[in-house]
Amino acid sequence: MSASTTFETTTQPAITAIPIDQPILLIVPPRGWFNLDFAELWDARELLYFFVWRDVKIRYKQTAIGAAWAVLQPLMTMAVFSLFFGRLAKIPSQGLPYPIFYYSALLAWTYFAGALQSTTNVVVEQQRVITKVYFPRLVLPLSAVIGGLVDFAIAFLVFLAMMAYYRIVTGPAILLFPCFLLLAVLTALGVGLWLSALNAIYRDVRYVMPFLVQFWMFASPVAYPSSLVPERWRWLYGLNPMAGVIEGFRWSLTGRGEPPTVMLAASTAAVLMILVGGVAYFQRMEGTIADVI
Amino acid sequence: MSDIVIRAENLCKRFRIGERERYLALRDVLARAAAAPARLFAPRKPSSSNRGHPNGNHSNGDRSHIWALKDVSFDIRQGEVVGVIGRNGAGKSTLLKILARVTKPTAGIAEVRGRMGSLLEVGTGFHPELTGRENVFLSGAILGMSKSEIHRKFDEIVSFAEVEKFIDTPLKHYSTGMQMRLAFAVAAHLEPEILLVDEVLSVGDAQFQKKCLGKMGEVAKTGRTILFVSHQMNQVRRLCDRAVWVDGGQLRQQGSVAPVLGAYEEAMSRGEVAVDQSRGARSSHQKASFRRWQIIEPQDESQNLLFTLGPLVIQFTVEANRPISNARHGIALFNVDRQLMWAWEATGLQLEAGMHDFRFKFPVLPLRPGPYYWQVSLWDDIEQIDLWDCIPEMVIATEGYQHPSDEWNGILNVPCEFSALEGQTNQEVTVSNF
Question: Does residue A111 form part of some domain?
């Protein structure tokens, strides 16, 4: 390098002098398959907050019926399920009134489906920002799954009203409910990480999504109880993480039935696998995402 | 050398041609995998996008790749204001994107010491549905400011942008100019120790550009390090201490501003910086090829920047290697979305061997501000002799005379005078937009 600089560093004001021990940021080619930087992610928490705040704000500004949509969706599905699967097909409901039986499952499902959709699209939708400024990319899918919790909270209030209407008192199992909610969030995040990275590269992923969500719903105990599945196959059924989540929701919210232990163990294991794999895959794509989209 | 804040060593960036292809279908990849399942497990480079070269080992000398950057090394010291110059496609923006960590280098290493902020685009993260106030917070956070920092600077930002009255109005009701001002105001109040700025000042009206440059000069005086990409040599001269000239993905020259700019401008005027990689190779055995283009009138320091709607004269220089009879010369102007603005053809040209200047005089060119692209072509009776997507782009930096809201912006930028005449009293109210 030619040292022909016209500026002398000594003439600079001392306020901006950078200490010698300032950490050095290294910019290197992508390497390794798993290098999650938790400290960096933690530093980006304010940005995460702003992304969530923006998504929620825009969602409620753009839809005319706003918050009503968050409630209408599970409520209508509940009505249809209660009528056709319940009254007409007489599917067993663990002694719960059909609306409660279905709505408790739909709470989990509506959140999951919505969060999965928005997580899948988030990288593509934010491509302008991604190609212009750096931040830990994981913030984007995280903001999508967290943003969905606002709709969930509104739908949950309706559930409380329904519980009061049917005079159902929940048991101590309700204390475990946050764990099941967390499991639902992690499932949406894990699967969403895979799909959002895939979607950034292969644009036909979004055409698969409606089918995937529908297929997955019928593979999960939303419209029926998992007790229909033979006991010895429950663990296999539980590998579908949403099976564990939904049964966990039903059990903890209504306090009826048995805790879905086997399924839950299988679901938790499956979620962790999906999540770790998802983070690794997402990060592998992260370095080149700005080149692809 | 503890005062070095950016050290780049042999930075390389390779793009796969076709990587920019927009619709890569999972369907195709799965079909290929089904045809040859073994490929799925073949070692793959992370950057591979499955475009028919499954084996990453062969790809080095492969024609399916281009090197946007090759072995670029430099050091930048604290407090330096460095201009990065070079023609379009020379690799300036890629270099900046690597330093800003938007994309990763293919090889090489860079070390950065200190808090870094980047400004590759004005208005990153703006959302039309949100109010000005909300967008300030959002954009600030995306650019790396903390919430308390934005709170602290909020009033300053708003008054810099001159949008106090509209700060709680959704952004979609802002004029393009107001949006630009607000966006730049946010960015201008970033206070990183190192600031990377891409050519963001080339749009927007001239007066605001001046204000922004002033602000950047102020920032530079406080001892911050700035890396600044620009096409406008007068800006570089005014702001920078040093210049780095990138040409064809390689570092061609660096040092104090005056000698580097001098060398660059000389090379430009000789038309020898044909960075457009496909051109250089072809042009010698061609019958003729376009060499350069420039704005002849109005005369201005910058070659591609237009501050007026007209009249103007644009010149394309073509070099003929042998005489061409009955030539046709096509010209077209595209906007940034590749939408054709205008095209025309001159026929029956008789060209001797040597240099020729094709001049176009336009009494008026009423286009809205932004970048535009000329495309020129030359044909004889048999074939197309040359087709050139002109580099650099032409940037129109006039004031906008359009409707303030985006969906009514249109393509043209037409000054007009409006008057309402009342039938009875013959009273007249006149408003003009220019």
Answer: yes
| Cβ contact, residue pair A2, B113, below 8 Å | no
Which residues of chain A does B141 touch, with a Cβ-Cβ cutoff of 8 Å? 46-47, 50
Q: Given this model, what pLDDT does residue B129 score?
A: 87
Q: Look up the ipTM and state it.
A: 0.81
pTM: 0.71
Q: Do the chains contact at A291 and B103, CB–CB below 8 Å?
A: yes
What is the rounded average pLDDT of the residues B204-209? 64
Q: Which CA distances in Å does B136 have to A50, B143, B156, B191?
A: 11, 10, 11, 15
Tokens 């283009």, located at residue? B293
Q: Which residue has the higher pLDDT, B291 or A242?
A: A242
What number of other Cβ atoms are within 10 A of residue B4's Cβ? 17
Whether residue A15 lies inside any domain: the answer is no
Question: What's the pLDDT tens digit per position in B69-97?
Answer: 899 999 999 888 999 988 767 888 889 98
Residue B222 forms contact with A (CB below 8 Å)? yes
Structural domain tally of chain A? 1
Restricting to B residues 251-290, those with a Cβ less than 8 Å away from any Cβ of A are 254-256
Residues in chain A: 293
Q: Where are the domains of chain B?
A: 26-63, 70-269, 277-396
User: What is the average pLDDT score of chain B?
Assistant: 79
Chain A segment 189-228 residues within 8 A of B by beta carbon are 198, 201-205, 208
- Domain with A279, as residue range(s), is 36-292
Q: For the structural domain made of B277-396, what CATH number should be given?
A: 2.70.50.60
- For residue A33, the distance in angstroms to the closest alpha carbon of chain B comes to 10
In angstroms, what separates the C-alpha of B70 from chain A's closest C-alpha?
Answer: 14
Q: Are B255 and B241 in contact (CB under 8 A)?
A: no
* Domain-located, residue A23: no
In a domain, A17, yes or no: no
Question: Hey, of B101, B122, B147, which one would you mutate to test binding to chain A, going by the most A CBs within 10 A of its CB?
Answer: B101
Of B106-115, B159-168, B286-295, minimum mean pLDDT range: B286-295
Give the homologous superfamily in CATH for domain B70-269: P-loop containing nucleotide triphosphate hydrolases (3.40.50.300)
Q: What is the mean pLDDT of chain A?
A: 85
Q: Which among B19, B16, B109, B14 is positioned nearest to B67, based on CA atoms?
A: B14
Give the closest residue to A209 by CA, choosing from A269, A121, A147: A121
Within an 8 Å CB–CB cutoff, is residue A54 touching chain B?
A: yes
A64 CB within 8 Å of a chain B CB: no
pLDDT over threshold 70, residue A14 = no
- Cα B310 to Cα A48, B299, B362, distances in angstroms: 48, 12, 7
Highest mean pLDDT of the ranges A8-17, A58-67, B291-300: B291-300
